[in-house]
Amino acid sequence: MHSSTLTPNGLTRRTMLSLLSLGAAGTGLAACAGSPLQRVAESTDDPAGLTASPAVSAPPVPTADAAGAVALYSALDGVAATFRVGPATVQDGYTLVRVEVSTDSDEEFTLSSAFGGSSPYTMRGMRLLSLRQSLVFPELGDRSDGLFDTISRLSSVEVFPVFEAVGDDVETVELFLPSVGVAVGVPVVSPEDAGFEAGEVLSVAEIDREADPGPYRLSSLVVATDGSYDTDVDEDSTTVTVSGDVTFGSDSTELSAQADEVLAKVVEQLTRYPSGGKLSVTGHTDDVDEEDYNRTLSEQRAQAVADRLGELTDLSSWDTSITGKGESEPRAEGTSDEARAANRRVEVLMTPKNPAEASALSTAATPPADQADASPGQMPRSVGPVGTGADGVDVRISDQTVHLSMESVTRVGDYVTGSLLLSAQEDVSITVNLFALPNELQILHWPASFTAAHSPTLLAGGARYLAANYLDAESEYVPVTNRRVRNIVPGEAMRLPVVWPYPGADTVTLDLPGKNLAARLTDIPVAQA
C-alpha cells in the first residue's frame, strides 16, 4: 500500500443475539412511531400533497475503464472523493483488488477507520461479492498501510484488500465498501494485466491465517408485512415459515380461513422445482401448556399443512416428512407475547434435487419467477415521512434535521444494491442502533448480533425484503450492509450501501420501518448492470 502523486490539475496518475433491548440512545424518532407489523396493509400511503410520480429512469451504471477500474463518486466525512475500484486479480490462492482514492476538494482526509467494520483501522468491513453466484468473501488482511495517509488534491492513496480466491470461471466481481457504495462489474484479470505487483502486495499483506476465508452463501429473507409468513432462500434450500396464529385458530389443528392464502406462498416456491426433492414440514409451539401436549399439537398442525399442500399442488415428486417439535426449538427466546407468537409456527423446508431449476426460471422471467412475493398488493402504512427517492424526506435525529434520499439501485442477477444518503447542515452524532429493526423483524433471525444497519428494507406489495445476509463462522447472521456508521457532517452526504434480493419491477420502494428511525422513499429506478 502506498501513496501516489497527482498532476497539478488534481487528476491521478495512478479506494444474534437478537438485541431486543437495543435502545434509542443518542437518536430521535422520525415523524411517527408505531409497530409496523401490527399496522397491517389496510391502506396505502397517500400523504397530502404527494402525487403519483412520472416515470423515472436510472442513471447509467459505471463500467470499468481501460485500466480495469470502476469509479464510485462518493464521500467520506463530508469530503467528495473518487474511489476507483479494480481490477481484481488472483494470486497464490487469494483475490486482490486495487482501490485508489482521490479528491478534487480543498479538504483533506484519511481512510483510517472508514473500512474497519468490527476491527478498526483495518479493511475488514469490506466484502468481496460474486452476486451472480450468491457468494460473499470476507476481507483477510490486518495491515493498515495507506489508511492513515493524507488524501488531498495533490495526493491519492491506494489500498489492496485481500480475499480468498474466486473461481476460475468468475469474470467480474462486486466490492462492498462501507460508507461508500458497491462497485459493480469489477473485472478479474490475470496478474500480468493487473497493473500492480500482486506478489509484492501479498508478501506484506499480513493475512489472518486463523480467519475463516469463506466464501459464504448469501441468503434472502422476505417477510409478509402482516407477519403471516416469511421466506428464507439460500443456494441449496428454501424455508417458508407460516405463522401458527394466522394458519390455525387458537389451540386448534383446523386450518383457518386465511390458511390457503398463506400456503399459496409455499406452493409458489414448490413450483420453482419441477424435479422435486425432499420436503420437510415441521410444527412448533410456544412454551405454554405441557411439553407432551405441545409436541402432539405441533405434529398435528404439521400434518394438516402437509395434507392441504397436497390438495393445492402435486407433491408426487417430493419425498415428504412430517415432524412435531413442540416447544423444543424456539425461534425466539423469552416469554414475551412477541417471542411466543414467533415460536408458534410451521416450517416448510424444501431441499430440491436440482436447485438450478429456480435460477433457470428466474433468468427466463421478468420479474423473476422466484420473486413471486412481488405480486401486486397493498403496502403497509408508513410510520414515517414519505417522499420519492430523488426528492427524499427530512427526519429528526438527535433534535436535528437530516435529509434522506436514494437516487437509484443497480440490479445484478437476483440482487439489487444501492446507497441510502444522509445529509445535514450541521454535525449529527449517530450510532448503528439508529438503524435497528423493530422487534418483530429482529426476532426472525435469532440468534444474531444485529450490530449492523439492518433497517433499510425494500417493499413490494405485501412483502418486505430484508438485506441479503449470510451466516458467518460464528453462525451469526451478517447483512450486506454497514457494521458501523459514521457521524453525519456538513458537506457531501454520508452513505449506507446495502444489498437486497431483487423484488422484481422497474422501480423499488425503500422503507425504514421504525424502532428508532422511520421513513419511506418511493419510485427509485432500477438500473441493469
From TrEMBL:
Its main location: membrane. Keywords: Cell outer membrane, Membrane, Signal. InterPro entries: Bact_OuterMem_StrucFunc, OMP_bac, OmpA-like, OmpA-like_sf, TAT_signal. It is found in: Cell outer membrane. It holds the Pfam family OmpA. Residues 326-341 have a biased composition (Basic and acidic residues). Residues 235-354 form the OmpA-like domain. Residues 1-30 form the signal peptide. Residues 275-298, 316-341, 356-391 are annotated as: Disordered. The keyword Chaperone does not apply. The keyword Cell cycle does not apply. Residues 356-375 have a biased composition (Low complexity). GO terms for cellular component: cell outer membrane. This is OmpA family protein. It comes from Actinomyces ruminicola.
